[in-house]
Model the fold of this input.
Amino acid sequence: MKKFLLTAIAASLIASPILAAAPADAARQRQTTVVRHEPGHTVVTKRTVTRKPVYRNWKRGERFDYRYARNYRVVTNYRNYHRLYAPPRGYHWVRSGNDAVLVAITGGLIGAVVAGAFN
Done:
């Protein structure tokens, strides 16, 4: 049993760099091949469909999901921006594109949105 566990651990360590090297955009791309048979010849068409990520316009009272935020970062230096104020206890400022969003740390509830704060 010990040899089996050691073999499984070694295999997972070897496979982890291979999985990490997979492109992140592979989930957004899909390649299709269309084959049409016409009299006398065959027409093969290859198409690659790339989907852009869907970004959101945030509103007060919604739940914040960082996966839909463009240029997501937590803002710790809110004093450097004249339109941002000190976040209340339990909240922090988050950057989504050029907007600043005041998000509850535990629940992700949006308390305020400052549009164009980083222009």
Summary: The chain is about 15% helix and 35% strand. The radius of gyration is 24 Å. Strands lie at 29-38, 41-50, 73-75, 91-96, 99-104, 110-114.
